[in-house]
Amino acid sequence: MTSHPDDSIPVIDASVHIFFDGAADMRSYLQEPFKSRGIPDYEMSMYGAPGGEYAPGTQHPDGRYPGSDPEFVGRHLFEELGVAAAVLHPMSKGILPDRHLNSAVLAAHNDMMVSRWLESGTYRDRFYGTLRVNPDDIDGALKEMARWRGHPRIVQLGVPLQSRDLYGKPQYRPLWRAAAEAGLPVAVHIEVGSSVTTAPTPSGHTRTYAQYVGFMALNYIYHQMNMIAEGVFEELPDFKVVWADGAADMLTPFIWRMDTFGRPHLEQTPWAPEMPSHYLPDHVYFVQSSVDGPADADFAGEWLRMTGKENMVMFGSSYPHWQLATVDAFPPAWSPEQRERVLWRNAASLYGIDIAAHAGGVGVSGS
Amino acid sequence: MSIVRDARPAGREQVVCHVDEIPVGSHKVVPIGRHGVGIYNVAGTFYAIANYCPHEGGPLCSGRVRGKTVVDSERPGDSATVREGEFIHCPWHQWGFELATGTTTVKPEWSIRTYPVRVMDQHVVITA
Amino acid sequence: MAITEIHERTAPPALKPIRVVDSDVHPVPRRGATLEYFPEPFRSKYLLSHPIGETITYDAPDYFYAQAMRVDSFPTDGEFPGSDPDLAFRQAILEAGCDIGILEPLAGGWYNDPDALHAAAIAMNRWQDAVWLSSEGNWHQRWRGSVSVSIEAPEAAAREIEHWAGHPYIAQILIKAEPRPSWGDPKYNPIWEAAVRHDLPVTCHLGRGQYDNLPIPPVGLPSYNHDFMVTYSLLAANQVMSLVFDGVFDRFPALRIVLVEHAFTWILPLMWRMDAIYSARGSETGLRRKPSEYVKDHIRFTTQPLDYPEDRLELARAIEWMEGGKILLYSSDYPHWTFDDPRWLVKHLPESVRDNVMYRNGIETYHLPETVPALEGQTQVVF
Questions:
Q1: How many CB pairs below 8 A link A and C?
Q2: B48 in Cβ contact with B117 (< 8 Å)
Q3: Which chains touch A (3 or more CB pairs under 8 A)?
Q4: Predicted TM-score (pTM) of this structure
Q5: CA–CA min distance C59, chain B (Å)
């Protein structure tokens, strides 16, 4: 794994997905009455990737589930790839209609993440955590936050991209308020598993996986514009959101649109009186996706500067998914300063990660 | 029509009409400049603004005067309109401009030319 | 006895080269005007027996007064903007300076019965022909019209296309964006077939909708007109991905699509995204070419509503990067409130693409002549 020659820039991987090693493993972290409930597995039936969900090389030699063994994952990230630190994001079993069950399952994932990845094992000092909470159960989410309040290695909350309503709506505000008060960004990511949700596009189903992958992540734009118009960022200056499925490129045309078309509508939304783009800096972030553009175009650096994306995008592998992102796929036309921001500065600043404590000679070097 | 005796309009000042021609809450477009100037009577105070929207050149003074929406949590719907009649909205894209200043809070740099207006001997005088 | 007839020799009308093609003008029927064209039993079942009032949701600014229209486009007879062909001609052609206006009637009525939707399309087409494309209505030869079809009834739609193909003033087929499923579904093949057989582009204008016909986002309901309409472009983005990844352009290599009023700057990053997915998923997609090549060869986008950042140079760069000179068509959207005047719009285009976007692409797309009869007093848009 190489980047530029003579390059020893530290790398923070802002999105590593972790899983239980099978259903029995998960149930060992549940108590009754949830231990006996019907809970789906991680794989998505209709929306799973043909040929398999996970990238080659992520399968554990002992047959353990990809992303379930901290030693295996840590060795790969920190020894083989030379990553300095990684933010873990537990994936869950689906948007379950019974919010009580869903909250219990998420809490089990949080317990597993803390005990297995953050508080034990060889690499516990390199891993940071995402606390999964359930937006369908605000009371339960606030209690889960209280349960883990002050944990030094939990750096953000995690909620699903799929939702019954857009995240600007009032029912979610107490959760964003609590996140802002706790200084925790909220990462939004496509939930895997058997979710009970609407079809993934505004036209219903897709006939191909390519169209599903192409569209699904773009659903963040509906949430983002609604959060602006509903005044989430106006009310909560400390609130930060991380769109963890990427597609930062789409923010540029859509915020142009929101500014141009939105300006005469500000009369309808006095709780969000500023131009929409005003609310982006220091509020909106992205985990870079491997299908983000514009690849090797010579204007890639100029494009990244537009809309301030160079301050928003963070490298994240999304290990162990098939869309594994790597640092050597960065657009060559990015400036060295842009590379640094994406490789570690934006994440270090957002999550309060002290890179000096991790870097110490470790970096991504040419070989 | 009374004759102006002792206080004659000065400099580029122009008498445009009698005050009775623009009752409170109404406006009149006078042929000054390339697109005309709209003279507005807002609760007894006169304002003058160029009849040309800086966005795409729409006929600004054909639009409606409105107030400004503010948050008011005491009311159903959480909003109230204040300062009625102090803002002109372009009839094309509904961009709103404050009559007194030709600008808005949301984008102060996008402004419209306004003109000093005064009343002298029952006549509306604008400096243009 | 021979009779000598004397005829005044009249000079042929002066011609002017087309410099502005407006790809989106909205004619609207006067109240009750489509009734005579509406086939039975739908006329009695829906129009005569079931009066409905205002149905607006997601209202544009000052809706009660402006009705989402340019306030200066209301005719004096109390009818709706776009209902008076003379006023439309005066404002859209003479004052704005557009040489050709492509008419896009938005077929009214949202019914759950595909046959009723088809009947509404038939009515719209007949009305358009009688009022706007007749020798009276189109005396100036500046209007071109659309064959409105309901894609919910593809076989019937194909028959309607057959009926109007060859009409000298019909320029395109017109469909809506909202019906499900997305366009890659083979059930729509009869429409694409008819389109390529007659070399007519299939144009899609957004139609909003009512109830569950709205393109309801998967993750929840927008609250206001601006978060609704801004994110509306994602519907078009999804349709583009369906056309590409479902292989519609491999099935119909001569098919041409025009997306109207869906905005366009989003197609730049979408092309990168599709190309990256195509590259990553390989043979699974079954495509013969890169997605961005399909887009540039088969799809056109109108410029209205023009969305731009504070730094206009960024827009100019984006237009260059997307090969805007190839894929963009100027449009005004007269008489809607989001109207873009051609004199204003052309200034925002990089000089290198102005001729293409303002008229050359339009002439090519709609098979227009190079010249039209000149009109006295028409604004000349200079660029």
A1: 228
A2: yes
A3: B, C
A4: 0.95
A5: 13
Best probe of the B interface among A263, A275, A279, by most B CBs < 10 A, is: A263
Shortest CA distance from C336: residue in chain B: B92
pLDDT over threshold 90, residue B104: no
Nearest CA in chain B to C60: B94
Span A12-358 CATH architecture: Alpha-Beta Barrel (3.20)
C278, C339 contact by CB (below 8 A): no
The number of distinct structural domains making up chain B is 1
Domains of chain C: 20-53+61-370 (3.20.20.140)
How many beta-carbon pairs under 8 angstroms link B with C? 37
User: Residue C326 is encoded by which pair of tokens?
Assistant: 């190839």
Where helices occur in chain C by DSSP H, the ranges are 42, 63-66, 85-88, 114-131, 154-164, 189-197, 225-231, 233-245, 248-251, 267-281, 291-298, 312-321, 324-327, 342-345, 354-355, 361-366
Q: Is B73 exposed, middle or buried (0-12, 13-18, 19+ CB in 10 A)?
A: exposed
What is the pLDDT tens value at each position of chain A, 367 positions in all?
334 444 689 999 999 999 999 999 999 999 999 999 999 999 988 888 998 999 999 999 999 999 999 999 999 999 999 999 999 999 999 999 999 999 999 999 999 999 999 999 999 999 999 999 999 999 999 999 999 999 999 999 999 999 999 999 999 999 999 999 999 999 999 999 988 889 999 999 999 999 999 999 999 999 999 999 999 999 999 999 999 999 999 999 999 999 999 999 999 999 999 999 999 999 999 999 999 989 999 999 999 999 999 999 999 999 999 999 998 889 999 999 999 999 999 999 999 999 888 864 344 443 3
B64 touches C: beta carbon within 8 Å: yes
CB atoms B106 and A267 under 8 Å:
no
CA of C76 to nearest chain B CA: how many angstroms apart? 15
B-chain residues near C339 (CB < 8 A):
56, 92-93
Q: Residue C7: pLDDT above 80?
A: no
CA distances from A320 to A70, C8, C236 (A): 13, 85, 32
Spell out the domain ranges in chain A: 12-358
Facing B62 at nearest CB: one of C61, C71, C339: C71
Nearest CA in chain B to A265: B94
Tell whether C65 is within 8 A of chain B (Cβ): yes
Q: Which domain covers residue B68, as residue numbers?
A: 13-127
SS3 (DSSP) at C208? coil
**pLDDT score, position C3:** 62
Cα–Cα distance between C122 and C147 in angstroms, integer?
9
Angle CA A198–A204–A210, to nearest 5? 105
Q: Tell me: the pLDDT tens digits for C73-116?
A: 999 999 999 999 999 999 999 999 999 999 999 876 678 899 99
What CATH number did the domain enclosing B59 receive?
A: 2.102.10.10
DSSP structural state of residue C258? E
Q: Are C285 and C278 contacting, i.e. CB atoms less than 8 angstroms apart?
A: yes
Can you give the pLDDT at residue A35? 97
Show Cβ contacts of residue C278 under 8 Å, excluding neighbours closer than 6 positions.
Answer: A210, C285, C287, C290, C291
* Residue B63 is assigned to a structural domain of this protein: yes
C-chain residues near B59 (CB < 8 A): 72
In a domain, B2, yes or no: no
Half-sphere exposure of C55 (CA within 13 A, CB side): 10
